[in-house]
């Protein structure tokens, strides 16, 4: 039953091929509704069209509604054209769902392109090995999938005589996404590696079991629009933009109203690294389930406490900018009659972190600096350098 108490009846019919550019849909039967895949075989049009029809029937009044949808999917006969046309958001969501550990998870169920090998490619510089645990297998599974796909991409590029690259334009953020996922609360080890700094072993585990379970719960049903944000934070420089709402223009055309819907002028994201955090800067970090406001030492000393009447020590102007930025990060879609939040959760708590005084909160914020090295992983630049060298050796 749907929200309007209508019963949905759906019956799949055999595929039907239609010649020409026009799509035809047979008459709907009163007893049921049928769904057809309609393929346009015109050689000059490289699309496969999937057309479906849904019949909503009200069990009390007998009213019927038919919803017809058409989806155009690009097709090709050349294997090298597949990866450049991939949707990165869909790939990220699919990889999160396939590689996250669950009760029936095993290395045999991981995605692989190598039919002659049952084991994945292990990063020799990684401190853990396959078989140590489900999280370890999941980390290596994500690395293996990306390694095999990008190796195949380079091999096909060389065979077709095109300039080889590490990744196609559509997947240029894939290495960053995998690095962020491995360092995120989803897959990173909870206990720091015990080395020379023995005091690190006395710290509380991060993430804790309930935090990791919360991330995994949302990762298993994440949408392509939020898959990257779930593990890859967005760092914004508060002083780089006005964070003011864009004024709307009242016009008669509904489409123009939609294009000019109220938005906040946000600056371009800053790479998530400690080296990019200026001592006199103020930054807004969007970590999907929580937002951090990082205030540098010099910025905290330069008078951000002027004209404020609250306990957070922020000026009214700075508080308004942060509030507008958080509102824009929550309201992703204006499609429809009311704004719709596409995040896994609508709430976004705000944590103010001052490097000078908030030591514990600052350490939690540093874990989201995914471009920097950790006790278990290298920095992103070293990872890409060694990863590209491995691909060149095999392709």
Can I get a quick summary?
The protein is α/β, with parallel strands linked by helices and 395 residues long. The protein is built from 10 helices and 10 strands.
- What proportion of the residues is helical, as a percent range? 25-40%
Could you tell me the radius of gyration in angstroms?
Answer: 25 Å
User: What is the β-strand count?
Assistant: 10
CATH architecture of the largest domain: 3-Layer(aba) Sandwich
Query: Which structural class do the helices and strands define?
Result: alpha/beta
The DSSP helix count reads: 10
Question: On the 0-100 scale, what is the average pLDDT?
Answer: 74
Which blocks of ≥5 consecutive residues have pLDDT under 50?
1-38, 103-131, 198-202, 301-305
SSE sequence, one letter per element = EEEEEEHHHHHEHEEHHEHH
The CATH class of the largest domain: Alpha Beta
Structural shape: globular
> How many structural domains does the protein architecture include?
3
The CA-CA distance between the termini, in Å, is 52 Å
- What is the fold named in CATH at topology level of the largest domain? Severin
Q: How is the main sheet built?
A: 6 strands, mixed
Task: Tell me the β content.
Answer: 5-15%
